[in-house]
């Protein structure tokens, strides 16, 4: 989505940071969140390029989920700005951010267990003029649940519920999908299925930010990695650079440098 035709938005700095003249899709600037005396996210400048797959890692309590909640608007920032696709999202609510092209899947499944797989997928399509049947069929194919389309969501395995929720988060083809620990508690087979799904979404051009603890999974899916520690960006680089960095091993893996 682009607002290049809107002169009021063109005159804002957001367009310089994430607009049509740059390949940066999301940029946070000085993003900060205080909880009382604790600074959970501390002056974070995070950039995500169009079509990029970036993993966000870091020790427990590093601020990963808080950063994701600030980007989606679930939490209000204490300081700083969030730019996305030429717009300043900082003061927009979550629904407006979704309309702008952001989507999120939180850690635990939020599917409607009493509804069928297809009925769950219809929920995000209520406000769209898309061809619902075509969109649902394409999504079912993408998440590998075509054969289970009429099954109640309560009957699905944990891994299938997670894939259904990724399907719900992607029916509207967001430009950026944020995933919080998408393979937590999954078997190896379920983890591999989600890895394939994430890669196919990325192959289709979707940018993703994935919070993850499982380094094997990060190694499998990731192009770029950001390490958060004590609310700050500690390192950024490729998975190889991050894995070989002795300071990252010390803070993240608990090893001595
Ligand atoms: N609503 C809240 N009120 C007060 N403190 C909070 C709140 N949410 C998070 N925190 C604190 O902010 C810090 C960052 O938490 P956050 O959950 O973002 O870390 P995380 O990197 O996602 O950790 P984990 O990997 O364990 O999920 C922690 O010290 C946490 O206790």
Automatic annotation (TrEMBL):
Keyword Nucleotide-binding (UniProt): yes
CDD domains registered for this protein in UniProt: ABC_Mj1267_LivG_branched (cd03219)
ABC transporter domain mapped to chain residues: 26-255
Positions of the UniProt region annotated as Disordered: 1-20
A Pfam short name: ABC_tran
Single GO term (MF): ATP binding
Protein keywords: ATP-binding, Nucleotide-binding, Transport
Gene Ontology CC terms, in alphabetical order: plasma membrane
Residue ranges with Polar residues bias: 1-11
InterPro entries tied to this protein: AAA+_ATPase, ABC_AA/LPS_Transport, ABC_transporter-like_ATP-bd, ABC_transporter-like_CS, P-loop_NTPase
Name this polypeptide is given: ABC transporter ATP-binding protein
Protein source organism: Natranaeroarchaeum aerophilus
């Amino acid at each position: 989505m682009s607002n290049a035709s809107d002169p009021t938005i063109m005159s804002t700095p957001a367009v310089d940071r994430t607009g049509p003249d740059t390949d940066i899709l999301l940029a946070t600037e000085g993003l900060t969140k205080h909880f009382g005396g604790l600074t959970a996210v501390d002056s974070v400048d995070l950039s995500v390029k169009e079509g990029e797959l970036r993993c966000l890692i870091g020790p427990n309590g590093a601020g990963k989920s808080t950063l994701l909640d600030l980007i989606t608007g679930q939490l209000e920032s204490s300081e700083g700005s969030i730019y996305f696709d030429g717009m300043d999202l900082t003061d927009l609510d979550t629904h407006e951010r979704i309309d702008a092209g952001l989507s999120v899947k939180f850690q635990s499944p939020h599917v409607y267990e009493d509804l069928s797989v297809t009925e769950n997928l219809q929920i995000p399509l209520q406000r769209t003029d898309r061809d619902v049947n075509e969109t649902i069929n394409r999504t079912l194919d993408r998440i590998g649940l075509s054969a289970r389309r009429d099954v109640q969501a309560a009957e699905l395995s944990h891994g299938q519920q997670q894939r259904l929720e990724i399907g719900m988060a992607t029916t509207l083809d967001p430009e950026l999908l944020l995933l919080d620990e998408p393979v937590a508690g999954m078997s190896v087979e379920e983890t591999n299925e989600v890895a394939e799904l994430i890669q196919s979404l990325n192959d289709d051009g979707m940018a993703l930010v994935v919070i993850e603890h499982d380094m094997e999974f990060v190694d499998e899916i990731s192009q770029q990695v950001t390490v958060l520690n004590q609310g700050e960006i500690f390192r950024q680089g490729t998975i190889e650079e991050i894995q070989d960095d002795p300071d990252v091993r010390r803070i993240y893996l608990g090893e001595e440098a």
